[in-house]
Amino acid sequence: MNRILTVLLATFSVLMFVPEFALASGGGGERLPLTDSFVGYMAILVFVISYAFVMAEEVTHLRKSKPVLIAAGVIWIMVAAVYASHGMPHAAEIAARHNILEYSELFLFLLVAMTYINAMDERNVFESLRSWLVRAGFGYRKLFWMTGVLSFFISPIADNLTTALLMCAVILAVGRDNPKFVSLACINVVVGANAGGAFSPFGDITTLMVWQKGIVSFGTFFALFIPSAINWLVPAVIMHFAVPDLKPTPSTENIPIKRGGKRIIGLFLLTIITAVSFHNFLHLPPMMGMMMGLGYLSFMAFYLKKTHGKVEGKEGVRQKKYFLEHNSDSTPFDIFHSVGRAEWDTLLFFYGVILAVGGLGFIGYLELVSGVMYGEWGATSANIAVGFLSAIVDNIPVMFAVLTMGPDMSLGQWLLVTLTAGVGGSMLSIGSAAGVALMGQARGLYTFGGHLKWAWAIALGYAASIYAHFLINASYFEGIVKIP
Fold this sequence. Notes:
The chain is built from 23 helices and no strands. The radius of gyration is 24 Å and the shape is globular. 70% of the residues lie in helices and 0% in strands.
């Protein structure tokens, strides 16, 4: 540890005092030209190394939040040290606070959404849906379409990761003995969940970031519904003929929703309405509406705790009998347990990514990239390339980088990059959280190679969705939308 500290101190000494790396200081809000400096190169190296660890998470089993948290800290330490040495001690502080504010809004919004999802999970909402699908006795082809359709329509309300895990549980419950069906159905679920999340502000982190920035209004996102549907339908129709035309043995399992589960679903929808109203009518951050929605859930939790064990109607009697037989539902509902079960690794990962990318942006690299992509290539080519990039790198840092660049584009182009960033990750199994999660859940049955075999079909859907967007939403490509 002492050696590491010594190396860091020596590095900062070089950055601040060695003539080769000295930089002209500017007054006021002027930025130092760091892109061709030792600091800039070191920042890029730190970010690349940290993201290499993120991409190798399945191999190393090192949670993705850890390397990016370190990278964010190191990048801002180097930037702040250089600015302080040039008589601008508060420049980095102001920029960092701006990034932290953006993260805090995203964090609180997602925390509430995750809490609701966990509460519904605790109330057996998803297990009840799974048991219904399993005992329905659908054939493999019909189940292939059922899970795909549900993935496409559930992910805009929940999120693509939760939706994919739920549908994968159904797939494994009925088709574990048929590896070909499991592989094809999982690919279909990943594509459907990612496509469904692209036309809703709540469906994906990228759409949420665009909405919270005020670039695209809530209702305008639904202009991407048909392009998103095409993105999923094209590969689904192609894969349909490869799905085994067999019928598995149905199950008799019947899991009821726990008391209060349906009301929590209603409160979640009310919370979404509240968040949209805060943003659209009061011009307040949607995060405030979500936090108010957490208050709704808190009162419901209080009611469920006070009335725990009470039976309500014939349905309540049936549910109580089931839970007694299965030795469950013995503890009252606890909202803080649902808060504690939030995806903290994901939330911390967002912090690291936003601060690290923000640091690179403050250095000046995003401005250079924007000049090449949006200045030389053009907005259409750049936004299509974003989709391919998000298949390799997580779409969150990619979209945050685009938002930080703030290129002058029409509303149609902003919708295009929202679409491509959301669905581009479907081309590879490692390109989205849904794909990575399903590789772990259906280990050995849904693999990187199995997904790659159908990448051509998914790429056809990607191209078709872009064409449909230009065809259907041509009116949105007029004028320029400035980031507020």
